[in-house]
Amino acid sequence: MSHPSARIAIAFHSGYGHTAKQAEAVAAGALSVGATAELVALDELTDDVWATLAAADAIVFGAPTYMGSPSAVFKAFAEASSKVWGDDLGWRDKIAAGFTNSKAMSGDKLNSLVDFAVFAAQHGMIWVGLDIYPGWSDSTASIEDLNRLGSWLGAMAQSDADLSAEKAPPATDLRTAHALGVRVATVTQRHLRGALAA
Ligand SMILES: Cc1cc2nc3c(=O)[nH]c(=O)nc-3n(C[C@H](O)[C@H](O)[C@H](O)COP(=O)(O)O)c2cc1C
PROSITE patterns in the record, alphabetically (predicted)? Predict the structure, then answer.
């Protein structure tokens, strides 16, 4: 049973819609185990954005990998969040996780996930990775395997450069993003129960 009040915010940027598909899959995963999930686009840093993040029990960070790191829009958000950081670590003890998408299989996506994890640590948050063995990594494996890009730090997706967001990233990567949403919601539920018992 999931904790009904586990609130998962997905704070993301997507320049051309591909990473937004991943964000929607993370949200669907969280919803599937009874949490609430809210998509928070970071293009405009309104009061509503900050209020939603303040109210969340978990924040999942997501951005496309641009030039080997999270997109500039995400980095602007990260810098603006220093106000929350300065207010006695306003996101302390929230659960954190991350996802990223890019056109190359690697594309240096790991660097974006590391960036998210460091960012979360600076905020005193608790990082949750993927608990899935790497797929598509032996001779009988399939591209349809969960975690086909083999990341533990967070969910990765790959979008062919000539495909629109209607067609990329592929369903296999969206299933992996969904699994991250399930895991974050489940861990957040446990975290909330532990806080109630303490
Ligand atoms: C400015 C820019 C930089 C990019 N840098 C990378 C990169 O470092 N590695 C990579 O694999 N793809 C790179 N890409 C491709 C994007 O990550 C890819 O098109 C992704 O699907 C875009 O996601 P979005 O539609 O959510 O913006 C770059 C694209 C742009 C526009």
Answer: FLAVODOXIN_LIKE
Mean pLDDT of the chain: 97
Examine residue 110 and state whether it is found in any structural domain, yes or no.
yes
pLDDT surpassing 80 at residue 56: yes
Q: pLDDT, tens digit, for every residue of 144-168?
A: 999 999 999 999 999 999 999 999 9
Write down the pLDDT at residue 113. 99
Could you tell me which residues come within 8 angstroms of residue 94 by beta carbon, excluding any fewer than 6 positions away? 56, 57, 58, 59, 123, 125, 126
Q: Which domain holds residue 116?
A: 7-197
DSSP single-letter state for residue 2: -
Nearest CA to ligand 1 atom 30: 66
Of all protein residues, whose CA lies closest to atom 4 belonging to ligand 1? 66
CATH at 150: 3.40.50.360
The verdict on residue 2 lying in a domain is no
Q: Is residue 1 part of a domain?
A: no
Number of domains in the chain: 1
* Residue 64 forms part of a structural domain: yes
pTM: 0.97
CA 34 to chain CA mean position, Å: 18
